[in-house]
Amino acid sequence: MITASLKNTRIAPRKVRIVADMIRGKSVVDAKIILSLASRKARHPIADLIDSAVANASHNFKIGPEGLIVKEIRVDQGFVMKRSMPVSRGSAHPIAKRTSHINIILAVAETPIKKAKAKKVKAK
User: Fold this and answer.
1) Relative orientation angle of helices 43-56 and 13-23, to the nearest 10 degrees
2) How many angstroms separate the CA atoms of 40 and 116, rounded?
3) Where are the beta strands (DSSP E) in the chain?
4) Positive or negative, the Cα torsion across 46, 52, 54, 60?
């Protein structure tokens, strides 16, 4: 299993999960194409994370990106920075600046094995 992780990304987890759902189960080549066409801010850190995982695969296991699929991508909540916005009459509204932890697991794609049909020989 080839893994890579990204901690404390300053994007809310619910926004990162939208992009993560688009590439889950796809091949790495297809995932890169999908991310290049996505219009979300979260596509940049996820694309960098896939590049890191592919680099891990080629360095540690000598596997190219063509034979890899995104087996699992998990987005968890990181720490929350608590801020406040001043409003009228000396009050303040709370603001939660959320962060994300992103973990990706790549696996080698299992190609379906084509079975050769056995020819039936008629006995004479």
Assistant:
1) 50
2) 46
3) 2-9, 68-86, 92-108
4) negative
Q: Residue 93 forms beta bridges with which residues?
A: 85
d(CA 107, CA 46): 17
**Segments forming the whole domain that contains residue 25:** 2-108
- By C-alpha distance, which of 8, 10, 20 is closest to 78? 8
In this structure, is residue 115 part of a structural domain?
no
Q: What are 113's two structure tokens? A: 């094995």
Angstrom distance (rounded) from CA 21 to CA 31: 11
Q: How many CB atoms lie within 10 A of CB 54?
A: 20
For residue 76, pLDDT beyond 70: yes
CATH label of the domain that carries residue 11 = 3.90.470.10
The residues that bridge with 47 in the sheet, in sequence order, are: none
Q: Return mean pLDDT, the chain.
A: 92
pTM of the predicted model, to two decimals? 0.83
Nearest to 80 by CA among 94, 66, 65: 94
Residue 124, pLDDT score:
65
